[in-house]
Amino acid sequence: MTIEEEIKQIEEEIKNTKYNKKTQHHIGRLKAKLARLQNELEKRRMSGTGRGKQSYAVRKSGNATVALVGFPSVGKSTLLNKITDAQSKVGAYDFTTLSIVPGMLEYRGAKIQILDMPGIVEGAARGRGRGREVLSVARGADLVALVCDVFNYNIDALISELYQGGVRLNTKPPNVVITKTERGGIEVHPMVQLTHMDEILIKDVVREMGIINADVIIREDITPDRLIDAISGNRVYVPCIVILNKVDLIDAAHVHGIVQEITSKGFETVPVSSEREINLELLKEKIYSKLEFVRIYMKPQGGEPDLKEPLILRKGATIGDVCDAIHRDFRNRFRFACVWGKSARHPGQRVGLTHLLEDEDIVTLILRKE
Fold it and tell me: For 34-58, how does the pLDDT look when each residue is reduced to its tens digit (9 = 90+)?
């Protein structure tokens, strides 16, 4: 039996097994075995990729990258053309976009790269319609924007393809630490009360994933799927919004109902019409806020801060990140920095490389002379 046949067989067994307390242990082990086989199959495919095979190579630029993911003919190309400097081919038929088309959105001092990608089709995660290449680009994005329209807004199918491609939307990585050991079997150390899995199932899932000896520290009420993600180590966790396009073609009450339906699934939704340019400024603001930028204003020693050209970084940025963004040698020459703003205990606070910055902070770097 080939790996593909074994995967299909396990998928059918999971699908046909009714989930309850009696079967949860069996299903958990099946999911772990399925994930191990899928990982093995993906490794074989990657090692067997030849030079003649096509792939999408996208050079990242700007302060962040947004991937437009959607079905064919939902208006991604028109949307890209309206909010960026790009010129993506537009047509009222499927599969107009056959490559990745980048555009640059400049908004509130930030340069945001927007990628128009070929439409996702069912089976994309298995390679249909060059789906693997499309999903690989989405994996590298800082934000995924699911694009649908008022006539085709079943985002569940898009979410499923992304999930199968290892993309986890609007979730954080599992709070699990797995340390392989030379002997002793699997030792489980739960730091919280577990309601979804017992220690026996946790050990079985870990073994099924190919780990024989390890210490497993669990700091969340873990599920089998989340534990498998933690062991696999090849998942990416990306924030996501939904763009509902072509809202000019139906009445406002119907649009409101669709937005409520999508929002109930846990996704912030922006209703737009790229053709009529409805809510495009709202969309830009939503993209900007979701990317969680921080604007840092640089102040030369003894001078005035430059409040016109902020340094754009992401939430969680430190003084060390400021050094890296300005010049590769600044971190090595760093002595200290002075900070004014929300992150400072007092104006002009003297801080080190690890100081955490906040939006609109003013920073002076003091460096050793070369």
Answer: 999 988 887 787 666 544 445 566 7
> Please, are residues 191 and 217 in contact by the beta-carbon 8 Å criterion?
yes
For residue 311, pLDDT over 60 is answered with: yes
Round to whole Å and give the CA distance between 275 and 282.
15
Q: Are residues 204 and 134 in the same domain?
A: no
| Residue 367 and residue 335 in contact, taking contact as beta carbons nearer than 8 Å | yes
161 plus 274 within the same structural domain: yes
Distance CA 191, CA 176 (A): 10
Q: What's the domain range around 224? A: 3-50+174-232
CA distances to 80, 119, 165, 180, 340 from 76, rounded to whole Å, are 6, 9, 21, 45, 41
Alpha helices in 62-130 (DSSP H): 76-83
Burial (CB count within 10 angstroms: exposed 0-12, middle 13-18, buried 19+), residue 304: exposed
Shared domain check, 162 and 73: yes
Collapsing DSSP states into helix, strand and coil, what is residue 55?
Answer: coil
Contact, 190 vs 216, CB < 8 A? no
Mean pLDDT of all residues in the chain?
A: 90
Backbone angles phi, psi at 298, to 5 degrees: -90, 140
